[in-house]
Structure formats: C-alpha cells, structure tokens
Design a protein that fits this description.
With 468 residues, the chain is mostly helical. The chain is 75% helix and 0% strand. Helix 3 packs antiparallel against helix 19 and helix 6 runs antiparallel to helix 7.
C-alpha cells in the first residue's frame, strides 16, 4: 500500500485520506482516472449532442424544401417531439445502468442512436422523421445522466465540477464545429442521388457506430469494479470517496428507496433549476443558425458563425468550474452566469447592429453552458448513496428535456427573425433560476447551522454538510 507512515506525515484519525497516502501516488492515480474517464466520455457526449442537434444543420442544408419543413409548425413539432420520450426514460435509464453497468449501458446507447441517425438519412416525409426522432430520444435518454452519474462516483465532492466541465466543454467545442462539419458534408449533395442533408445524417450516424467498439473496450465501470487501476489505486479512490461522503460502494437498489428519494423536494428544485439553464442552451442549439440567417447572413456564413460562441462558452465553462471548485461554492457562481445569460438575451432581442446581437449570442451561450455542469455538480455535492445519486441525476436531466420542449415551442416560426416571445420566455426562466438559487441557499445554510450544533444529521451521514 502506498501509505505514508506515521513518522513521515501521519496516519492518525484526524488525517485526511490524501494526507495518509503518498502525494505523488495520489496525483498519479487521479491523473490516470482523469485520462481514462474524461476524454472518452467527453467524445461520446459530444457525438450525442451533435446527433441530437444536427437537425438545425440539416434544415439549412435543404431538408426544409425536400420535406416541406417550412409549412406551418412542422419544424417545431419535429424538434419538440424528441423531448417527451427523452424525459420519460431518464430515471429508468439510470436504474438499468445500476444493473448492467456503465460499459454495457453506454455501448448499447451509442449503437442504438447511431442506427437511428442513419435511418433519418432515408426518410421521405416529415412524419417518418418524427418517428426517427422519437426512437433517437429513447436511445439517448439515459446517456447524459449516466455519464454525469459515473463521473461523480469517482471523485470527492469539490473535485466534481471541473471534471464535469472538462467532459462537457469538449462537447461544447465539438458541437460548435459541428456546423462546419455539416456544411462540408452537405457539399456531397447530389452524390449517389442523395441530398446534402441526407449525407449529414448518414455520415454522422456511421461515425457514431464506429465508436461502439471503443466504448465497449475503454468505458470504465464504477470504482469498485474497475479493471484499469491497480488494487492500491482502487483502494485510494474508494477511501477518498468514503471519507468525503460515505458512499464509495453502491447501496442496494430497491423500489422503496427510489420512491423515498423522489419525495425529496430538493431533488425537484434542482430539476427546475436545470430546466431553466437548458432552456437557452436548447434554443441556441436548434435556432442559432436560423437567428443568424435572420440577420441577413448567407446559409454558409450562418453555419460558420455558429462556432465562435461555442468556443467562448467552453472557455467560460471551465473558468467557472475551476473557481467554483476552488471556492467550494456553487450557487453564487451559477447566479453570475445566469446574469450573463439575461444580458445576452436582452442584447440579442433589442440591439439594432447585427454585431451587437451576435455578441448577445456569445453571452447567452457562455452563461447557459457553464450552468449545466454547475447544477449537476450542485446536486451531486448535496446527496449521498449511489441510489439517490442515480435517481436525482435522472430526474434533473429529465427536467432538461422539459426545457427543450419549452424552447422548441416558444421559438415560433411566426416570430422569425427576432423571436422576441422566445427570448422573453427564456429570460423568465433565468429570473426563476435566480429566485430558486436564493431560496435554496437560505434553506441549506440554515440546515448546515443546525447540523453543526448537533441537532440533525444531514443525508443520513454524520458530519455531512451541504455545499452552498
């Protein structure tokens, strides 16, 4: 065992786990876990996001004309119909994950939605496309909460947001370049008798399927069942998590526990917060090329200009994750990012110069993107046990699907090109988020004071305090 002896640094009861282990051993172990988890999970999630949101790119690449997408509310229906099954299958997905393990679950998900994506390349009507989108939603539903759940089982509470941000910002960057990729693929239009938008779905679906063997071989399981660390390294990870929150090993999953966790009002509050931050994120993902084209930019330029706001969002996301982990505070930094989103929405909605409105898109993306891993970390910091973590993560991400439904219904075709009704609805969500953060902080702070006085035991874990 790589443990420091008492003479060289202490192994008494008061010493932390990291102090009892050789510091270099701790760093090497965490670095090994980081490299195994974060790049691969970030790549898989980025493909998930690209396959989910490439509808906007396909629309500008000729799908509008071929399938009559500009008739009535067809485009809004096709985007919205994805989200009800996406919401419904979130919690069941995380429960299945507990039984079959992350590696099997994630590999099946990747294979399933890759096949669905390929099927979208051959649809001949917008109704058939709706069916493919529903199938895509079912297969993608448990993917993001599974990734977030898996990452939070490997680290201490105040190490989580940076890790969530790293894997998430990789998705942000690659999603930003997805417009460039779609633009390049669309130039194949006419080859093999297929339109450009069909090539987008086909090639991106085939690319997804190519990741299945990689996912099967390299996606790790939960810490106690991993196969890439040594026995000593595994024990270190388990010791760190156990000391931090007392749930290093999975607890038994039974229906009574799931129902008890679902009765926790804080779970629903975090879910409503997540709904608020995914609202602007979903709106930008589905409508940013359309908003840019409404500013007078060409089809190609609209696709190209989608990339810079995502790069800025990636930088902002990591900065706020770093400062949030460093200060061990969540709500205050979520509030700052929410104010950024509100500012961006006001500028995009009411500024006259196109350059200023484009700047607003930067602020919207920066505020919303960083808040997504922030709220997942906020929840993960304030729950214990694998079962509650699985249930809460599933419910929270399901609320993100509700935000997607909201976004696709309030950004109406008749409001093109400024979408003022949609922008105001999005701002309303941001003001609600600020109120929820304030209420949450007051209640959790009061409970922490009571726990310090010995009046209560929080989350059934002695010594546990909530992260504010």
């Amino acid at each position: 065992m790589q443990i420091v002896d008492e003479k060289n640094g202490g192994s008494d009861a008061a010493a932390t786990t990291d102090a009892r282990y050789d510091p270099d051993f701790v760093r090497r172990t965490l670095r090994r876990v980081d490299w195994r988890l974060l790049p691969l999970l970030g790549l898989l999630y980025s493909i998930d996001v690209i396959d989910r949101t490439n509808l906007a790119m396909a629309r500008t690449a000729g799908m509008n004309k071929d399938l009559g997408m500009d008739i009535g509310s067809r485009y809004s229906i096709i985007t919205m119909i994805f989200f009800p099954p996406y919401v419904l299958f979130q919690v069941p997905g995380n429960i299945v994950l507990q039984y079959i393990g992350p590696r099997t679950f994630l590999t099946i998900s990747v294979a399933g939605w890759g096949i669905s994506q390929i099927g979208m390349a051959f649809v001949t009507s917008w109704r058939t496309l709706c069916f493919c989108r529903v199938l895509l939603a079912i297969l993608e539903a448990g993917f993001f909460p599974a990734l977030a759940f898996l990452i939070t089982t490997w680290y201490k509470r105040h190490e989580v947001q940076k890790r969530l941000a790293i894997f998430y910002l990789l998705a942000i960057v690659l999603d930003g370049f997805s417009a460039l990729l779609a633009s390049a693929i669309a130039k194949l239009g006419g080859k093999a008798g297929m339109s450009g938008w069909r090539w987008v779905f086909l090639l991106e679906g085939l690319g997804t399927l190519c990741l299945c063997p990689i996912a099967w071989v390299f996606v790790p399981d939960f810490p106690d069942k991993n196969r890439f660390l040594t026995e000593d390294q595994t024990q270190l990870i388990l010791d760190r998590v156990e000391e931090d929150r007392g749930d290093s090993l999975p607890d038994k999953l039974i229906a009574a526990k799931v129902l008890r966790h679902l009765r926790d009002p804080f779970l629903w509050m975090y879910g409503l917060m997540f709904n608020c931050v995914t609202m602007p994120g979903a709106a930008m993902a589905f409508f940013i090329p359309t908003i840019l084209s409404g500013m007078g930019f060409s089809e190609t330029m609209s696709l190209l200009l989608t990339t810079p706001p995502y790069i800025a969002a990636a930088i902002s996301t990591f900065f706020f994750a770093w400062i949030s982990d460093k200060t061990k505070k969540r709500a205050i930094w979520l509030g700052v990012q929410t104010l950024m989103s509100i500012t961006g929405l006001m500028i995009t909605g009411y500024a006259t110069p196109h350059g200023a409105r484009y700047l607003g898109l930067f602020l919207i993306n920066m505020g919303a993107s960083g808040s997504i891993p922030g709220i997942i970390a906020y929840n993960a910091n304030n729950v214990t046990t694998h079962t509650k973590r699985a249930v809460s993560t599933g419910v929270i991400v399901a609320f993100g699907g509700v935000g997607g439904v909201f976004a696709t219904t309030v950004y109406r075709q008749q409001d093109f090109p400024r979408y003022l009704n949609g922008l105001w609805a999005t701002m309303g969500c941001q003001f609600l988020l600020l109120m929820l953060l304030a209420v949450n902080t007051l209640i959790l702070n009061r409970r922490n004071r009571s726990a310090r006085l010995g009046n209560v035991v929080l989350e059934e874990t002695p010594g546990f305090l909530y992260t504010l």
